[in-house]
Automatic annotation (TrEMBL):
PANTHER family: SI:CH211-14A17.6-RELATED (PTHR11576:SF3), ZONA PELLUCIDA SPERM-BINDING PROTEIN 3 (PTHR11576). One of its GO terms (molecular function) is acrosin binding. This is ZP domain-containing protein. Residues 27-274 form the ZP domain. Residues 1-22 form the signal peptide. GO terms for cellular component: extracellular matrix. One of its GO terms (biological process) is positive regulation of acrosome reaction. Keywords: Disulfide bond, Signal. Gene3D superfamilies: Zona pellucida, ZP-C domain, Zona pellucida, ZP-N domain. The keyword Disulfide bond applies. Pfam families: Zona_pellucida. The keyword Disulfide bond applies.
Length: 339
C-alpha cells in the first residue's frame, strides 16, 4: 500500500510538468485504431499506468532519446469504445488516460480520442433492433497472466525473486464486444512443474472459490482493481521450491460483475480487522465468511456461463525464488505464459 501511495503522490506531480510535451498520434482505420503516445523519460518506469479505455499498451519501447513509445493497436470493438450516431456520421469515442492511482481515483491525465466515419447505409440503432437486447457476445475470450515488477509499474524484467519480497501477478481477460465482465481467480497453486499431475507437490495460494489463503498466514493481498476485467494478486514470495523453477497455476473465471456469491468472489484476510474482506464490495464481505470453512460451490448461473468458455487455466513461469543469503547465482530465464 505504501508503494501505491508513493506512486500516487510523486507521479501526479511529475506528470503535471511532463505531459505537456507528450506527443500523441492517432490513426483511425476502417474498423481499428492505431495510436502512438510518446512519453517523457521520467514517466517510462510507469508505462503500465497508461491506458486506452480499459486496454494497456499493446507494445512499449524505450527510444534512444530515453523517451518511451507506447503503441495501442486495437479494434474499435475493444477497449470500451463508445459508438454514437450524429446525423450522417458514426462516431467512436474513447480516452487515453494516465492513472498512477487506483481506478476509483480520477485519472491524472485524460486525452479524448475520436474516430468519425460516414453513417452506414441502412444502419439501424441497436435499441430498434429486436434481437439486440438479448445478444451477450459469448464468443471466445482471451485470458492473460503476467508478472509485474515490484513497483507495479511495468512487466517484470527478471524472473528471479528474493525470498519474502512481493511478486505482483496481473491477470486480465480481453472483453472485446462482451458485456462487462469481472475477472476472478478461483484457485491458484504453486508447483515446480509447468504441468500439474495427480501426484504433484503444490503450495496452495487461492482455494475455496476465491479465498486468498496466503493473506491469512502471510502478507499477500488483492490490490484494488483498475477495471473489472483485470485483477492483481500481490503475492509475497515463499520458501516452496526455493532455488528451483516455480510455476503459478491459476483457474481464472470471467463472471457477471453484478452477481457475487460464495462461489464467485475475490476475498483476502485483513489482519487489522481480523476478518475476510470482499475485494469488490467490502459491504458484502459476509460472503467471504465461508473462507474459514467450506464455501458453497453451486451457482444458479454457473452451468449457463461456464459452459460457454468463461473459465480458463493459465500458467505463469518459470519463477525462481532465491534466499538473499545464498551465494549461488542463477541465470534468469524468460517469464512466460502457457495458456
Amino acid at each position: 500500500m505504501g508503494t501505491q501511495l508513493y506512486l500516487g503522490v510523486i507521479v501526479v506531480a511529475l506528470f503535471a510538468t511532463t505531459v505537456a510535451n507528450a506527443g500523441i498520434k492517432v490513426n483511425c482505420e476502417k474498423d481499428s485504431i492505431s495510436i502512438t503516445w510518446t512519453i517523457h523519460p521520467m514517466l517510462v518506469p510507469f508505462a503500465a499506468r497508461h491506458f486506452l479505455g480499459n486496454c494497456m499498451a499493446s507494445r512499449f519501447n524505450v527510444l534512444p532519446s530515453g523517451e518511451g513509445k507506447a503503441e495501442f493497436n486495437y479494434k474499435l470493438a475493444d477497449c470500451n469504445f463508445k459508438r454514437l450516431v450524429k446525423g450522417k456520421k458514426l462516431l467512436y469515442k474513447n480516452e487515453l488516460t494516465f492513472r498512477p492511482r487506483p481506478r476509483s481515483s480520477p485519472a491524472s491525465y485524460v486525452y479524448p480520442i475520436e474516430c468519425v466515419y460516414p453513417r452506414p447505409k441502412g444502419w439501424i440503432p441497436p435499441f430498434l433492433n429486436a434481437g439486440s437486447s438479448v445478444a451477450e457476445g459469448r464468443g471466445g475470450l482471451k485470458f492473460h497472466m503476467l508478472l509485474l515488477n515490484e513497483r507495479i509499474t511495468a512487466v517484470a524484467e527478471t524472473n528471479v525473486i528474493p525470498l519474502g519480497s512481493f511478486m505482483p501477478i496481473w491477470a486480465t481477460v480481453e472483453q472485446k464486444s462482451h458485456q462487462p465482465l469481472l475477472l476472478l481467480m478461483e484457485e491458484c497453486v504453486a508447483a515446480t512443474t509447468p504441468e500439474l499431475q495427480a501426484n504433484s507437490n503444490v503450495y496452495p495460494i487461492i482455494r475455496n472459490k476465491g479465498c486468498l489463503l496466503d493473506s491469512e498466514k502471510g502478507n499477500s493481498m488483492f490490490l484494488q482493481r483498475y477495471h473489472s476485467s483485470a485483477i492483481t494478486l500481490y503475492l509475497q514470495s515463499f520458501k516452496f521450491g526455493l532455488g528451483e523453477e516455480v510455476y503459478i497455476h491459476c483457474k481464472l473465471l470471467a463472471w457477471d460483475p453484478e452477481v457475487l456469491s460464495e462461489s464467485k468472489k475475490a476475498c483476502h484476510y485483513v489482519k487489522e480487522n481480523e476478518r475476510w474482506e470482499l475485494l469488490d464490495d467490502p459491504m458484502q464481505s459476509s460472503i467471504c465468511d465461508c473462507c474459514s470453512r467450506t464455501c458453497n460451490t453451486r451457482s444458479k448461473r454457473g452451468d449457463e456461463w461456464e459452459s460457454n468458455g468463461f473459465r480458463h487455466t493459465s500458467v505463469l513461469g518459470p519463477l525462481i525464488i532465491m534466499d538473499p543469503l545464498q551465494q549461488n547465482t542463477h541465470n534468469a530465464s524468460d517469464v512466460s505464459i502457457a495458456d
